[in-house]
Design a protein that fits this description.
This protein is of the alpha+beta class and 306 residues long. It folds into three domains: 122 residues, no CATH class; 111 residues, no CATH class; 40 residues. The chain contains three helices and 19 strands. The longest helix has 34 residues.
């Protein structure tokens, strides 16, 4: 299942922040599997594993899987525990494409670290305390295409935590923004807390702006494309839970989709065209200089015979 939520911390005074469609080295634990008797133990243990991507568990075991690395493509990872036991004894199989194709049974490494081939990703298996992996438990993780990213940039000093989620099932934030063809910009016209601050919203990167309205904790952007309703929700929250959400006058927050592969292709194409143009000019100029250097026939004393 594709992850349709992206999140970025926009801290005061930090400019030009960017975001890929994966959580920033977040920590994950299976809260549904925590019983009252084990809650305190898991609370103390869960911060010992980190993951660059959100991993969702289906099952009752206390085992955790984290995914780290720099992927070379988009993946829909599924891990299934085939034989429950401890590290070095439990077995699992995995899929890179959402379950269409599966690996053979693999033994969970004693170290807990398993490299997923040439994907650039590593899975870390972790067990708190004396717990074991449970047969039948399934772990799912969506890894977005590294060339298709969501950028978030802030000009100003507002300290806000921003989460962007897709309002369309099975479509990522990137896919929705790319399909809608929009670039969101929020300009703070009047600073202050919710109920006081005023902003304007643009869907074309700031070329045109909507009316001034009071700022809210949630901003919904929606439209129809070819009869299909599309949209995203932007949620603003204070960086510190001890503080109220507020904005600084003059700040501008931008959210947009960027296909780096397409941009790189266009850049290479432009460079090649320039190189070809330069080579063509040099050939033309060289030929002209060569012709100018050859004396006319009269200087050679050449004449036509009758």
């Amino acid at each position: 299942m594709k992850s349709n939520v992206v999140k970025k911390l926009v801290a005061a005074g930090v400019l030009g922040l960017s975001l890929v469609q994966a959580s920033n080295r977040a920590v994950w634990a299976n809260s549904e599997a925590v019983t009252e008797s084990s809650a305190s133990e898991i609370e103390a243990e869960k911060y010992q594993i980190a993951s660059d991507y959100e991993v969702l568990q289906e099952g009752t075991g206390l085992g955790i899987i984290g995914i780290t690395g720099e992927p070379d493509a988009e993946y829909e990872l599924i891990f299934q525990i085939s034989e429950g036991s401890a590290l070095g004894e439990a077995t699992f199989l995995y899929s890179l494409d959402g379950g269409s194709r599966w690996s053979e049974d693999r033994r969970v490494p004693l170290s807990g670290f398993y490299s997923l081939g040439n994907t650039g990703l590593t899975a870390e298996f972790y067990l708190p305390g004396d717990s074991e992996f449970v047969a039948g438990d399934v772990y799912r993780c969506y890894v977005s295409d590294p060339t298709k990213v969501i950028r978030m940039k802030q000009d100003g000093n507002s300290a806000v935590d921003i989460t962007v989620s897709s309002n369309v099932e099975d479509m990522t934030v990137f896919e929705v923004l790319d399909k809608m063809g929009i670039s969101i910009a929020v300009k703070i016209r009047k600073g202050g807390a919710i109920g006081e601050a005023v902003w304007q919203v643009s869907q074309d990167g700031g070329l045109t702006w909507g009316e001034e309205v009071y700022a809210t904790e949630e901003l919904v952007i929606s439209s129809e494309v070819n009869g299909i309703p599309l949209g995203v929700t932007v949620v603003f929250a204070p960086v510190s839970k001890a503080e109220a959400l507020s904005f600084e006058r003059g700040d501008v927050i931008r959210i947009y989709a960027e296909d780096t592969a397409k941009d790189n292709f266009m850049t290479v194409t432009v460079i090649l065209l320039l190189v070809v143009s330069v080579i063509g000019f040099l050939i033309f100029f060289g030929n002209k200089k060569l012709k100018d250097a050859i004396p006319p026939e009269s200087e050679y004393g050449l004449w036509e015979h009758g």
